[in-house]
Design a protein that fits this description.
By secondary structure, the protein is α+β, with helices and mostly antiparallel strands. The chain has one domain. Helix content is 37%, strand content 19%. The chain has two helices and eight strands; from the N terminus they run ααββββββββ. The strands form three sheets. It has a three-stranded antiparallel beta sheet, covered by helices on one side. A hairpin with a 3-residue loop joins strand 3 and strand 4. The termini are far apart.
Length: 149
């Protein structure tokens, strides 16, 4: 009698199909976990930048910086920021966006998971975000009508 060794083509196809199904289930969950991690990273870095902006305000005669680049390489927060600003995890080609409205209010934001988020702060300090489904993540010293992811 001959002993059968190896697998038939049908058995191999079934194994490949099961593996493909498992990969199809796992990949979207992995992408969701990546976005959650980037959101947490952005929130942490934005809080650090906010601390640096507030420290700059205190040390520069109650004046907010006109750009985030003014925070780097200074003696104000050398251990907090160093000489390089953190980049937006959702847009690795650029830093977080910073806008100051007059002398009273500022906002620092990330474009968020949808990569098209934007926000602005009005002269009364109210933060507004476009209603096109953008999901920016931000910190501000003003008030807000929006919820972050």
């Amino acid at each position: 009698m001959l002993e059968r060794k190896g697998f038939t083509i049908i058995e191999l196809l079934i194994v490949i199909a099961v593996i493909a199904i498992l990969v199809g289930i796992a990949l979207p969950r992995f992408k969701g976990m990546q976005d959650e991690g980037k959101i947490a990273q952005a929130k942490g870095e934005l809080r650090t930048l906010q601390s640096a902006v507030e420290s700059y305000y205190i040390h520069q005669n109650n004046t907010y910086p006109t750009a985030l680049t003014l925070l780097t390489g200074t003696t104000i927060m050398p251990n907090l920021l160093g000489s390089v600003l953190p980049t937006d995890p959702f847009n690795s080609a650029s830093n977080y966006t910073y806008a100051v409205n007059g002398t009273n209010y500022y906002i620092i934001y990330s474009v968020g998971p949808s990569k098209d988020g934007s926000a602005q702060v009005s002269s009364s300090g109210v933060v507004t975000e476009p209603t096109n489904g953008a999901s920016c993540i931000f910190v501000t010293n003003g008030s807000t009508r929006d919820t972050q992811p």
